[in-house]
Sequence to fold (472 residues):
Amino acid sequence: MLQDRKIRVIVAKPGLDGHDRGAKVLARALRDAGMEVIYTGLHQTPAQIVETVVQEDPDVLCLSILSGAHNELFPRVMTVLKEKGIDDVLVMAGGVIPDDDIEGLRRLGIEGFYGPGSKLQDIIDYIKSHLKR
Amino acid sequence: MDIDGLVERMRQGDRRATSRLISLAEGDIAAARAISTRLFKDTGKAYIIGVTGAPGSGKSTLVNQIISLLAKRGKRVGVVCVDPTSPFSGGALLGDRIRMKEDYPPGQVFIRSMASRGKLGGVARATKDTVSILDASGVDLVIVETVGVGQNEIDVYTLAYTTLVLLAPGMGDEIQAFKAGIMETSDIYVVNKADHDGADQLVGEIESMLDLAETIELEHGEDHVVVEVRKQAKAGWRPPICKTNALTGDGVEALWAAIEAHRSHLVNSGEMARKNRSKYRQEIIDILREKFALHVEEALDLTKNGDLPALLDEVAARKQDPYTVSDGIGKKIADAFKS
Ligand SMILES: Nc1nc2c(ncn2[C@@H]2O[C@H](COP(=O)(O)OP(=O)(O)OP(=O)(O)O)[C@@H](O)[C@H]2O)c(=O)[nH]1
Ligand SMILES: [Mg+2]
Fold:
């Protein structure tokens, strides 16, 4: 059929840090790349983020964090996703994440890592080539 | 997962199944048809409320207040937020959830964001299917947020029982909004941002517009009045004007009372039955539009790779005129439509 399948993305900011400039820039770039981007705003708990995933049925979940709490918050998100049996969403992480932590997060199922200074086009390309459904 | 399985899981309260059914229906009219065939008998239980108004008038913030009022009363609520698709990229930024971040017990509130364009004219159809799926999932109410009249491909009043039109003081577009025809579509006016200067003046302006509509009817007969205003007036409903502050929730209880009054009015006057019929009429038209649009696309695709280039040569050589050529393509569409 000729129906165009739009890539749906949630851009979420878990945790307490109050900066969402990066997340907003990413959301706009993904929109400009033709995706439908659901932006949830600041201060989301892992449970809220997963509830949004349940309701919005996205292809991609981009988690963005600057506060350094990624080692608590990201595993929590991944655990709740697993509890709900959600395994067909591409989960990506942005923000400040030290290289040493990346391997551990990767084992939890988080796939793409994009820190500050990443090229937006790289993120777009990664999404397009790593969709799980 | 097949549609039967998803429907079964949705009936057992699995919200991921509900969510996936919405995605399927949104993306593909054939899936939507299969889903509707299975669910239609379970629909018609939820009360549907439309919320429309200019960008930034406070729709999402107000919807959030209504959700929280209803959740406190133990109601299950579905929300569909439709935002415009960028005409340049085909993408969309769906930001209404930013205003709806409260926590509710699992299963009480289900919010779904949708982009409005780029689906071959199927937006209205997709929105209705989403509302129907939420309805069948067992919510008591569905609230649909869309941007204002003329700024969107979907006119929410064709699917809602009660349509709220939001205006906010100082936005400078009040009268434009009336010109654009919101009088046809509004069951209740909401003057939001009542904390801003000019709210009372705006209420006054709306009152005069409503008076004027009635005067025109008296002086010039019913043909001069827009259809819906006349029908509402005949059935004895003059849209009330509610003032709200969506940040604090002031006025939201009174607004809810107005919505309930409108609902009773619809039931008692028999307008409900009329609205339902016109709703289904519109829905059938929307489905047909989308089906035809798809067939036109397909026919063009066929002819692009098939005989269209040759036909274009004929037109260029003045052997056939464009109407005759389109007749031929139209016959193909008609044949495809039958199957
Ligand atoms: N002062 C005041 N501000 C309000 C009120 N309601 C909403 N706002 C603010 O107005 C802005 C827009 O509110 P939204 O609820 O996003 O408006 P909207 O109509 O949903 O906007 P779009 O979905 O973009 O069309 C936000 O900054 C709100 O905080 C109100 O009653 N009073
Ligand atoms: Mg909004």
The longest strand of chain B covers residues 47-53. The radius of gyration of chain B is 22 Å. Chain B touches chain A at residues 15-16, 19-20, 22-23, 27-30, 85-86, 88-95, 97-98, 101, 103, 106, 110-113, 115, 118-120, 294, 297-298, 301 (CB under 8 Å).
